[in-house]
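Dear colleague,

Thank you for sharing your sequence with our group. We've completed the structure prediction you requested, and as agreed, I am returning the results in plain text so they can be pasted directly into your records. Please verify that the sequence below matches your submission; if there's any discrepancy, let me know and we will rerun it promptly.
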Amino acid sequence: MKEKILHKATDLFLTFGVKSVTMDDIAKEMAISKKTIYTFFSTKTRLVEDTTIYLFNKINSEILTICSSGHNPIKELFLVKSLVLEHLKNEETSPQYQLQKYYPKLFDFMKQKQFDSINDCISNNLKKGIEKGFYRKNLDNNLIVRFYFIGIMGIKNVELFPMDKFGMPYLMNNLLEYHIRAIATEKGIKSLKKILKK
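Please find the predicted structure tokens below.
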């Protein structure tokens, strides 16, 4: 039951926003009593914390699967981007903004976890890309990882990128192209152009 509540709460939070969804809404949606939810999650804050970590772990696990599948490093980045967009569903609820505003401690905790995950993923991607000739050899990997992380966090800032002007798929596509063009060799640019044509 706990897993089912986590799954449903995650879905509702992503669709309508953390602030908008109440424990009553979740209970009603699942046709269970609110008391049942409180058996597993003592407060809404605890439920928000657990759903956030649950979603992060789910996405992270699927990213690791993509990264171990032997794709060329540029295709790998686009597959990861598509996966993240698929999971985050309705970006109009701006999960990051809501966490930052209503659950700042959780936001800071998750920001560090995101950095650790991106650090692993992008570091390995850079190593593969350099070895296979898709990326330039003279890159400072630690610096590139941080540039990438700042970009990912930055495009989720609704004040800088209002949602009525910039959709998340548009922002992520452009950020990824910007990132790859900055580090790619001629071989890498050819691969990027093929992917962008599709």
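Summary note from our side: The radius of gyration is 19 Å.

Kind regards,
the structure core
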